[in-house]
Design brief:
single chain; 633 residues; alpha+beta; 5-stranded antiparallel β-sheet; 35% helix; elongated; disordered N terminus
Length: 633
């Protein structure tokens, strides 16, 4: 806002010194940064035009496109090869004495100066990281460019000539009013080959980079390898090929290389310009897949045209590309075009770049899926396989972790502790993920063990509290030892030693005409007891969290569950569900919701509370949610 005010003031007072037209931003070293950089540069150019910056009068659509393509490739290069955060600067310089045009300066800095910018166009040796067009694009688009090294920083800069009026010629239209002098659009450049090859190399490359940038954005958001393969086919056909096939190796096989038809390789996707030929082409390729030599790298490798099906009507050229990422072959991409003796070099290079992006997307999807599978297995191990059936008691349960693929911080258990005795627990661990899983892995088995050894409710909490404190002390000692071995580098984080747990734990003993309930609440939302008449009251008193205070003595309280009485136990994912500044339990909101459930079964009560919690806000829940309903029959 301050910069805008300065420019407005300068527009009214031509003699007033103008602030420099320069913007900066920092981007993380992730695959999403190139897209953010493109958006940032376009927004900066639009702002300068809107604010009537003098040099902006010469900004054409072509200059904007060049700037976006250049910054996209440089940020991609920095993210892939340096792997650090990226600093981006965009500056619009007015022409100085002896200069004919204004210039747009782009600077992209990373913090790994020892890693050079990649610009070579020949295939890299085995194990070399993926790379893009790099310096070739910079040299093609820019008036001048260079690389500046500073301590801990490497900056690639480029100067683009601003085509149009010099500063002071206010009669020239702004970029929003100009009729841009542009070459063919991206869609034209990537049209069927007979039309595309008539364009000169400069525009082919310009359209290619736009295609690669948008393809990267689409592929980066996919976490399923089959969807990546499907997207690859839809992006290539019919723009660059008449048909496309993607083979993916079986990740469980652990092969160093996978080729079509090899054990463990499967035909994941087939795409054709004529939809009715897809299944026919699939049958042909499954019967006679193309063969790649063992020495084939990530570049284009000619393969025989399929001999049946679509090939029986015509012939053409087919190329295969190995999909490799991190030195590991993940599959093969095969394309074909009818009536073509050979693909133009510009196209083969473009598809090679595209195949690298496909391989990276497949690798990312597999890592995500492996992590999700590990988390699901871990989650299943941390929760009971089934809920015990208690004579004379209905039970209803809802458990929804915030992260559907990972272990949450909430847990529950209902189990038989001995003859005529059943126990239940609802807990919430500080934190999420692996640290929470460690605490749950300690707490739930110890609860069962102590209960089955005959310890009373309060005694179970006393011993579990001491167990968590002892474990935290051992974890802190181990972390301190690691720091000492490392020469004092690094400090143990709180997450590595904190073992805080809120717990609602109780015991049920059925008898003729009711159920005797003994319960204790340690730092947990209080359980609520609903009578058949609709009256609601708290069924326990609050006590200290487990794992906080040494030698804490816990107490329990007992009451009878008569026929029709309902006990509701929840975690703070229910009570603290937010809608703006309001929480679900503000003004005894949970008690009011429970009072309206009088006379309903346990499962119906659990589902109604769950629905009300979700409907309380339009936003998805930001915490794990668990609730247990016990109703005496």
């Amino acid at each position: 806002m301050q910069r805008e005010t300065e420019f407005r003031a300068c527009a009214k007072d031509p003699d007033r010194p103008r602030p420099p037209a320069v913007v900066r931003t920092s981007l993380p070293g992730t695959s999403l940064s190139p897209a953010d950089a493109r958006q940032f540069v376009r927004a900066a150019l639009a702002d300068w035009c809107e604010l009537d910056v003098p040099a902006a009068a010469g900004l054409t659509d072509r200059v904007a496109d060049d700037a976006v393509l250049l910054v996209s490739e440089l940020v991609t290069n920095a993210v892939v090869h340096a792997g650090t955060a990226v600093e981006l600067l965009c500056r619009l310089d007015e022409a100085g004495p002896g200069e004919e045009t204004d210039t747009l300066v782009i600077e992209v800095s990373d913090h790994h100066p020892s890693r050079a910018v990649r610009g070579e166009q020949h295939p890299p040796p085995s194990g070399t990281p993926e790379y893009g067009r790099g310096l070739q694009l910079v040299a093609t688009l820019s008036e001048s460019w260079g690389i500046t090294y500073r301590t801990g920083t490497k900056t690639v800069w480029a100067r683009l000539p601003v085509e149009g009026a010099r500063s002071g010629h206010d009669s020239e239209p702004s970029v929003s009013e100009q009729a841009p002098q542009r070459g063919p659009r991206t869609a034209d450049l990537l049209a069927p080959l007979p039309k595309r090859v008539t364009h000169d190399t400069e525009w082919v490359n310009r359209g290619a980079l736009s295609f690669l940038a948008e393809a990267s954005d689409l592929l980066a958001g996919q976490f399923d390898e089959d969807l990546v393969a499907a997207l690859a086919g839809q992006l290539l056909v019919p723009r660059l090929a008449d048909w496309c096939a993607v083979w993916l190796d079986d990740a469980s096989e652990g092969q160093a290389r996978a080729a079509p038809g090899a054990p463990g390789a499967r035909l994941a996707r087939v795409w054709h310009t004529c939809e009715h030929r897809v299944e026919e082409l699939r049958r042909v390729l499954e019967k006679d897949p193309p063969w790649l030599p063992e020495a084939a790298g990530s570049g284009a490798c000619p393969v025989p045209w399929p001999g049946e099906g679509p090939a029986s009507e015509s012939s053409g050229t087919a190329l295969a590309y190995r999909l490799t990422a991190g030195g590991r072959a993940l599959g093969t991409l095969v394309i074909g075009r009818t009536g073509l003796l050979r693909f133009p070099d510009e196209v083969t290079g473009l598809i090679e770049d595209f195949s690298r992006r496909v391989a990276l997307a497949v690798s990312t999807a597999r890592r995500y899926q492996r992590q999700a599978n590990i988390s699901q297995v871990l989650q299943r191990g941390l929760l009971p396989s089934k809920v015990a059936q208690i004579p004379g008691v209905q039970s209803g349960l809802v458990y929804e972790p915030r992260d559907k693929g990972g272990p949450g911080g909430d847990f529950y258990d209902v189990f038989q502790a001995g003859a005529g005795r059943w126990c239940f627990a609802l807990g919430d661990v500080q934190g999420k993920g692996p640290e929470a899983a460690v605490v749950i892995g300690l707490a739930r088995p110890w609860l069962r063990l102590l209960a089955r050894e005959g310890y009373q409710v309060a005694e179970v909490l006393d011993r579990l509290n001491q167990l968590l404190l002892d474990d935290a002390t051992e974890a802190a000692d181990a972390a301190a030892a690691v720091v000492a071995v490392a020469g004092g580098q690094g400090v143990p984080t709180d997450g590595a030693t904190a073992r805080f747990l809120s717990l609602l734990y109780g015991e049920l003993v059925p008898y003729e005409g009711g159920v005797r309930c003994t319960i204790a609440c340690a730092g947990h939302p209080l359980p609520l007891l609903l009578s058949p008449e609709g009256e609601v009251r708290a069924a326990a008193t609050p006590q200290m969290l487990l794992g906080v205070v040494d030698d804490e003595t816990y107490t329990s309280e007992s009451f009878d569950l008569r026929t029709g009485d309902t006990l509701l136990c929840v975690t703070d994912g229910v009570t603290e569900r937010r809608s703006g500044r309001l929480q679900f339990d503000d003004g005894d909101g949970l008690a009011r919701a429970l009072a309206e459930c009088a006379g309903l079964g346990a499962g119906v009560v659990a589902e109604r509370i769950r629905r009300l919690v979700h409907e309380f806000s339009e936003r998805p829940p930001d915490d794990d949610m668990a609730l247990l309903v016990l109703r005496a029959e």
